[in-house]
Predict the structure.
Amino acid sequence: MTEPLARPGRKDPLKKTRLPLNPQGARSRAAHGLTAAAAEGRFVLQSCADCSAVVYPPRDACPVCLSPRLPYKDVDARGVLLAETTVRSSTDPYFRERTPWRIGTVKLDAGPVLVAHLHGDTKEGGRVRLGLKLDKSGAPVAIALPEQDTPHMGDDPQLRELTCDPKFRRVLITDGRTAVGQAMAKAFSEAGSSIIFVGIADAWKPFPGMDALRGIERVEIIPLDITDSESVLEQAEQNGGRIDIIVNTAEHIRAGGIIERRGINIAREEMDVRYFGLMRLAQAFGPGMRFRGADGVNSATAIVNLLSVYALMNWPTYGAHSAAEAACLSATQSLRAELRSGGVRMVNVFFGPLETEWFQTVPPPKVAPAALARAVIEALKKGLEDVFVGDVAEDIRLRLAVNPKALERELAG
Amino acid sequence: MTSTPSRRKAYDGVVLCAPVTVPYRRYSTNSAHWWIGRALQALTKQAGLQPTDLDGLSVSSFTVGPDTAIGLTQHFGLTPRWLDHVPFGGASGMVGLRRAARAVQAGDADIVACVAGDTNHVDSFRKTLATFSRFAQDAVYPYGSGGANASFALIAKNYMNTYGARREDFGKICVAQRDNAMGVPHALMKKALTLDEYMAARPISDPIHLFDCVMPCAGAEAFLVCSEQTARSLGLKSVRVLSTIERHNAFPGDPIQVRGGWAMDAGELWSMAGVKPDDIDFVETYDDYPVITMMQLEDLGFCKKGEAADFVRSHTLTNDGTFPHNTCGGQLSVGQAGAAGGYLGLVEALRQLTDAPLGTHVPDARIGLVSGFGMINYDRGLASGAAILARAA
Amino acid sequence: MAVANLLAFARAIASGTIRVVDLTQTLTPDFPTIVLPPEFGQCAPFRLEEISRYDERGPAWYWNNLTVGEHTGTHFDAPIHWVSGKDLPDNAVDTIPAKNFIAPAAVIDCSREAKADADFLLTVAFVKAWEKQHGKIGAGSWVLLRTDWSKKSYADYAGLRQDGAHTPGPGPEVVEWLVEERDVHGFGTETIGTDAGQAQHFNPPFPAHFYMHGKGRYGLQCLTNLDLLPAKGAVIIAAPLKIKQGSGSPLRVLALVSAERE
């Protein structure tokens, strides 16, 4: 049974903030197949295309038939915990301050043996299921979880080290004017976040849902306009020291391609909100979050960026919008590298057309704001890095993996 | 494919001589090159040779990078006609010996200097662990970074669960070895150890406690391999090689290591040597964790699988008692000088069989068995080897 | 005007005999701008990006880049701004004769009426009543509408409701009348636009823009401190930036007021 996490007390102002350290993050190129799967929350191992052997650790040739064809495939994650040890003395500074730390040898039903982190509810000799997660250095690791979910299992300290659980963490939702921003505030409140700061730009402009937003438990409305550097800096100065998760809900969605736009004003607004907006947030809040990456139960842990799935491949119906989203996506890749030293995760949540005004003429399936919010909470609880929400996003992901050129042509209509 | 490997030629006329140990230090500011150089110097002095007389060289080291054996020839001014680099950790001595012996036998070299040496800077052990192997980097070190302690803890825990060995049985091995180390001048751990102290030691990675672990240090070990005739002409006492075995990545299907490659090759080891386990006067096992010593006792045929704990209980394991084992104290007492740990047993056996031990004698020792084990690449040690050595006629 | 008189003018300013009243709102990022339906292009709000501030980007100097729409903050409307003035000569901020940037002002106080009704509309009758008290509005004079709107919170200032903005302004007849019957220089307000919040529903829509710019007259909006001006006698200096074919520009609007009561 996992001991439920206690709400963290107020920080002792006389105590030095523990600086973030990372476990070793180097991996072989072959091992990055696990990185890709862990980022999306899948459990995969190399499976020989010629003899079907399931292989671990990652290799460049099959140890049964020497085939070089070792694609990663989803495999059964269940197995037996053969032996465990509690590491009490570690040579690595990251683990040194986290010992005692349990690891074990897991024999998978699918064949291979993995050394894995152990969730507190696993027992030697017992059945377990493995999850692939990203650790603080963004590198893939396996953790053995109890075969069935147990109460408060997300509170397990070793698991929580691999996730960005919003429970007892303080969240900033950058734009509360939108349906998505409001759904997000509600979801974080329900997920047990301690404070949900919700940014409102141009407070003199009324917006639908304002009263409901104010009524959500632990929501605190703050003035924030991510197109205004000064406003972002002011918020960072005021609240940056106590923001553990940022969810960037600021959106700018307009239909139309490049030629028919007539000028670049709207495109500039799109870039201002999506690309420069993220940059302003990162510059203002990033340094503080990176510093607070190991600051106890409510350490800084993630920046969540909501992205149109058409960031990955332009949809000319929303052509200029797609391009701005692509710029934003590219920025997140840089931020991922820049945030890593602080153990702060950059989570990209890709969505298809939303059930909102700006996709009014787009036929279903569409993503309801509440579904998007649920997916964000789920991603943080599971510690994901790349999330695809809704049927369209998933469809684009799959088609992109198969044939990007075909996708380009087909999206052109 | 054949299931019976071809019969190997005996090592007739090939000997080991000139045992060298460069006294160990816990930490060193010197490089691995310095330690290896001192060992080579000691070899030439002991044998009365010029460096250029060494026409064969076999080097083992973890910390000599970015150099390998070839770079060292220029570094040390050697011009060998036979050169080998054996980065096999705890199996380095065994593998180096086997190759050198065949080179001498075939006439590829006359005098091969076999040397293993490593330095130990304040942070070099951590760095070695983090980058030990690709599998370690990908699949072990990120899991608590407990190093070999954690990996062997899992193996030891499984062994205890499976065969009922107890910590006390591991402790018996450690306590007896410490007893054997008392006369060795450079042993890093020379304070007598009691079973109570062993049991009460600080846990490192359960069930591994402090005295199950070797102490990483700097040091070097070396010997010469040549013909019996050459050794005699140099006035060196020597020992004969009765048989050797070597095996890598044995039993890959075992989900967790309970045996090593010796279990595949022990039959050949004994038949080639023409002796039986009862004929052995002392045994030098590779002792980085007593659980591996137990596997060696089983897999080499001194007892059945799973019975090593009983075997240990029924012997003193001391130089003056029954079944003398790790007669200079082993790495658990003298320290683990990197790859030199894989030479320790061979050099000590060479000393016992030429009546020149650094510590206490094993009385009337005529035949000794030395075993090596190394390279925990992922979840288990991959390399294993053994040699049976005999006092020269 | 003789040289001696100009110097006397400068001395009067220095000594305070002539007061200089600043009618300009500070340019800040959060000052409300005109809001169009979101599918239209929008007027860029004021934004400041620091280039350097005595730091590694420029060790000894502080400066900024700014972005701003032509119609952001306290700003000037040129005739070219409206379709009705698009073909007039000298209709853009760069071609308007410079002398037109200095003109007297009549300040019509309807702060009481606007306070009572956010949709208050100025009428011809109201102006005629004002003229009875203060005299006829002279040709070439600005007409500035004092509503005290500049004293409101931003939300009340913008006055946005579901059916649009509710802010005071002129009705259609009075604008046409001011141009045709009084030959005014232009029309100025404290609100975001020269027209009332609901003026898109008037006939013609946005009459202040339509009539003023259609006859080559100017607009000033987002003014403040109109309560510090006399009903008549103030001289306004309102020179927009010289933007090529600019439709307007943020500017500093100054009023010169004689300290001696008239």
Remarks:
- The mean pLDDT of chain B is 95.
- Chain B touches chain A at residues 125-126, 129-131, 134-135, 137-147, 149-151, 153-155, 157-158, 161, 202-208, 252, 255-256, 378-379 (CB under 8 Å).
